[in-house]
Amino acid sequence: NREIHLASRPQGWPTADNFRLVETGVPTPGPGQIVVRNQYISVDPYMRGRMNDVKSYVPPFALDAPLDGGAVGEVVAGGGDGINVGDTVLHGLGWREYALLDAGSARRVDPDLAPVSAYLGVLGMTGLTAYAGLLDVAAMRPGETVFVSGAAGAVGSMVGQIAKLKGAGRVVGSAGSPAKVERLTALGFDAAFDYHDGPVRDALKAAAPDGIDVYFDNVGGEHLEAAIGSMNLHGRAAICGMIAQYNAAEPPAAPRNLALVIGKRLTLRGFLVGDHGGLREQFVTEVAGWLREGKLSYDETIVDGIENAPDAFLGLLRGENLGKMLVRL
Ligand code: NDP
Predict the structure, then answer these.
(1) Are 37 and 163 in the same domain?
(2) Which residues form the Enoyl reductase (ER) domain (predicted)?
(3) Nearest CA to ligand 1 atom 32
(4) Tell me, what's the ipTM?
């Protein structure tokens, strides 16, 4: 069994030196426990925050101990709580080949319903984030203009497509490369731009000349400032993430136009997907239906091997992924 430990806390951008590959034995289950051979593990932007030793909504990762995070795999030993050897389960002990956990903290998933990797993305945490953030937090209504940043990523690509499926009038996305912009158009976005091409404010004004009603923020900083500038009266923003500043040593200067919130009566609402579990059933039913009918597409970027998990994580921060970044073991 091999696992990835946090060797040191990154200052600014993480590097390969912050991680260590460690060999241990395959664990043996105690009563009520299971051993899972992980097939896919998730790397996610929020993990960067957990590498800092600061108080947050999730505790920091410990040094010289395995990292953790979403994973799916097959139960190879033990059992309990209705989970048996041979079942495929979703659980929270990624970053390792074999996970030992209480059966009660794993959730069985159906490998015949969807490829198992989907339970970490489109039918899992990032999919629910998009669904809940757009429909619940921002309360998007048919006919509205929606702007989403990080639009070619796991969350963003779902936000744009769900907005279209739910009757948005116009959907605009921003992403970090020409290939990603092309992909957004293929996914049905009405307009898309590469934020490296010039000020986001100008690109957004050109893409949504009549302003935006909903902003789904994955990026923060300059994107949030531009969105505030473009928002129509009573506009709403779901503040999901601010990846532009996760590796910053200093807090960003933007948004400098926050006072516009007053006159435009804007709502900027932060949220955590963990608070929206009540929507899960509705979300899975609706999204699985769209997938079956071919109305929704999802991308995955897959890196092979536990030893390459740190590279996958670093690549995610650098934007090397289209859709959900996953490590296959
Ligand atoms: P993505 O699949 O979107 O991957 C991250 C992407 O961020 C990269 O592909 C890159 O794409 C983009 N990026 C990196 N640096 C910058 C930058 N400086 N400016 C603009 N874009 C940048 O990740 P997820 O879909 O998993 O997560 C998206 C966001 O949602 C993150 O901010 C994350 O923290 C947040 N999140 C929040 C949750 C919540 O409960 N609130 C739950 C899940 C995710 P590009 O090439 O376009 O730059």
Answers:
(1) no
(2) 15-327
(3) 241
(4) 0.99
